[in-house]
Amino acid sequence: MNRTPVVAGNWKMHGSRAANASLVSGVLSGLAPRAERVAEVVLCPPFVYLAELAQRLDQTGVGLGAQDVCAEAGQGAFTGEVAAPMLREVGCTHVIIGHSERRALYAETDELVGRKTLTALAAGLTPIVCVGELLEERDAGRTHEVVGRQLEAVLRALQADPGGLAGLARCILAYEPVWAIGTGRTATPEQAQDVHAFIRGLIQSRDARIGGSVRVLYGGSVKPGNARELFGMPDVDGGLIGGASLKAEDFVAIVAATQ
Ligand code: 13P
Known about the structure:
binds 1,3-dihydroxyacetonephosphate, TIM Barrel, single chain
């Protein structure tokens, strides 16, 4: 199965109007021309910069992602939240859901991640759904159990929806071992492949076609120096890049490593 790779830059809470302008222009000038690009590229800035980035990315073929979305579908009394249709309206194509920082720092549950995935799909956004274990969970040999539990919650939410599992075909998954995020400690290509194959296998057991086609990205200290090895693994379809996405040169080199 030939899956188009994806490289998404998660800027987290970084940026300013001036810094974003130079980062985006650096990325755009470093990427291959749109027609020759092998990977899909997505940039995910903080909410307040989305509209401005939408203009900068217009007609470039580079996708625009939010870093979170409200689980509630419409408008309403949800102070501080941003609805999926609003993200669509300002030009988002993607949204990161269930990032480990949202789970750990803002108490997002597996169930909430499932609901957010449905809400994003209903608005026509491509969810980038994150899963990943803590170091103590890996050390206790519980990696598959934890990642399986996180993924099952998303599958349950989809199955309870009239659209059923079909929505999963429009999702991108990201395996981000928490111990590898921002630590400089990357999963080995073999560790990544093991979990990616587990994720794909779990989906394949429900729907062989979707399991074969769904893209599973790796995230956690991906750098130009380790990207090619990671992306070379059979079930690693690209990356979700944090720190290295803030340097145009590094991010562009990581995109090139998908080739
Ligand atoms: P780093 O690439 O900085 O480790 O972050 C990974 C990440 O959390 C991307 O979502």
